[in-house]
């Protein structure tokens, strides 16, 4: 049987009809990328680029535009003064003294124009930085608000990367193209004004010479855009592989297993594939550019031939012909600059459209879902089903349960049974695909999400280790109270973290982790105690603990579970664990299997029923030689 070919980034095309397998190409990644994003959208995209630039730095934009206008006026003035100088030299007998004032004026205008160009470059650099920061901040704002389930989708990360690229490198290209176009337009306006005065016939001829460049620009920009969009999955794969060599956590295992050579080879193959595709695009662009340049050069030669004909036939005198030739040369240079600027602007604007579409995703998100509720008395899930984005199989199916205030409820089950997914739904981090979650009889879909989350504390098994101070690591539980050091210390004492934090070089102000100068690392168990302290500091009425003791030793784990009711007195606790022996004291235990609730009850009731809980509890107890296994 034929096997599909696998490319360096894992893309395949299955063989069919006995033919040789084909590799995925850019066209397979992006269908019709240049269809709806055609040249007719350029004015709208330029408008979007201008609005983004205005929001980022209106003062710098106005100054830069003023300098561009000055450069255009200066070009016009220089050409007119140059005509007067030529006429004086060719037709005057008064000597050089008569042209000295004009020459001085020409020098002064030239000096001012050069200074204006230098000032404009400085403003342009500053504005590019402002645009980059503004655009990147907008992307982060949306990423911070988008539904958490989106982070389970590769398509979302592709959109996020393109939006981030648009907010960075592409936004700078957009500003540069916008200013280049403004500079070229201002210069062209001066030259066109001179030609209109001297011989209007030359203006439409020059306009025709720009046509091939505009056609080439459109095609080349679309090719570039399609290339980068098509390469997004491959680029993300390369960035991931590079992080395995540069991030502190994975690099240990890469070294321990001797994976450096293999991963580096895979990284190089991805790079080689990207270069192959880029070479193909570059060859196509160069062929097109050569044809466009030859066509434009031919039309420019025709324009100069017409100018010569006008002079020979007495339609222009020598001085006017010389100034017209200078204006034509100026226009030829300006048209080349215009072509490059329009290409850069159009190409960047296509990415700005990705940026705008990503921001629109955030605009569609409700900022206030409505009802604000007090701390609950009962939280109830009703026939809840959840399917992760991009998946066809449900992670949870028709799950119903009730959690009452002040009780300890446990979710147990084997790995992959859906425990953490259900916890995220109850903590208002995910939204059900179907079914409802009720908060004291109110559908949480109609509630203000931020207000609900204010009542909830979640500590995940893969909790974040913030490479910031110990005070901040705990204080992030309620960041509004970061300066309440006594409350932070009290929370650390409850989690048994105060002793080792107090011994650090700068106590609670010591930076945790080795990423930054002066940082001190902690053991995994100590990090977990800091995470627990963060949960205590949040002081929320509903606490979700997802495998909270995974990094603690057996004695510390036993002590913590024995103290849960004392530590969280008066609060509601949802405890997730795959260790059945740790949840015996819970008021209610739900056993999940295959995304469904298979059993529910107290420890004694579940043991008496002889079902899955009893079987797995007995197996685990035997494995760990639990002396209480027979209870």
UniProtKB/TrEMBL annotation:
<dbReference type="Pfam" id="PF00005">
    <property type="entry name" value="ABC_tran"/>
</dbReference>
<comment type="similarity">
    <text>Belongs to the ABC transporter superfamily. Siderophore-Fe(3+) uptake transporter (SIUT) (TC 3.A.1.21) family.</text>
</comment>
<feature type="transmembrane region" description="Helical">
    <location>
        <begin position="192"/>
        <end position="216"/>
    </location>
</feature>
<keyword id="KW-0547">Nucleotide-binding</keyword>
<dbReference type="InterPro" id="IPR027417">
    <property type="entry name" value="P-loop_NTPase"/>
</dbReference>
<feature type="domain" description="ABC transmembrane type-1">
    <location>
        <begin position="62"/>
        <end position="347"/>
    </location>
</feature>
<keyword id="KW-0472">Membrane</keyword>
<dbReference type="InterPro" id="IPR036640">
    <property type="entry name" value="ABC1_TM_sf"/>
</dbReference>
<protein>
    <submittedName>
        <fullName>HlyB/MsbA family ABC transporter</fullName>
    </submittedName>
</protein>
<dbReference type="InterPro" id="IPR011527">
    <property type="entry name" value="ABC1_TM_dom"/>
</dbReference>
<dbReference type="InterPro" id="IPR039421">
    <property type="entry name" value="Type_1_exporter"/>
</dbReference>
<keyword id="KW-0813">Transport</keyword>
<feature type="region of interest" description="Disordered">
    <location>
        <begin position="1"/>
        <end position="23"/>
    </location>
</feature>
<dbReference type="GO" id="GO:0015421">
    <property type="term" value="F:ABC-type oligopeptide transporter activity"/>
</dbReference>
<dbReference type="InterPro" id="IPR017871">
    <property type="entry name" value="ABC_transporter-like_CS"/>
</dbReference>
<keyword id="KW-0812">Transmembrane</keyword>
<feature type="transmembrane region" description="Helical">
    <location>
        <begin position="93"/>
        <end position="112"/>
    </location>
</feature>
<dbReference type="GO" id="GO:0005524">
    <property type="term" value="F:ATP binding"/>
</dbReference>
<keyword id="KW-0997">Cell inner membrane</keyword>
<feature type="domain" description="ABC transporter">
    <location>
        <begin position="379"/>
        <end position="619"/>
    </location>
</feature>
<keyword id="KW-0067">ATP-binding</keyword>
<keyword id="KW-1133">Transmembrane helix</keyword>
<dbReference type="GO" id="GO:0016887">
    <property type="term" value="F:ATP hydrolysis activity"/>
</dbReference>
<keyword id="KW-1003">Cell membrane</keyword>
<feature type="transmembrane region" description="Helical">
    <location>
        <begin position="289"/>
        <end position="312"/>
    </location>
</feature>
<feature type="transmembrane region" description="Helical">
    <location>
        <begin position="167"/>
        <end position="186"/>
    </location>
</feature>
<dbReference type="GO" id="GO:0005886">
    <property type="term" value="C:plasma membrane"/>
</dbReference>
<dbReference type="InterPro" id="IPR003593">
    <property type="entry name" value="AAA+_ATPase"/>
</dbReference>
<dbReference type="InterPro" id="IPR003439">
    <property type="entry name" value="ABC_transporter-like_ATP-bd"/>
</dbReference>
<feature type="transmembrane region" description="Helical">
    <location>
        <begin position="61"/>
        <end position="81"/>
    </location>
</feature>
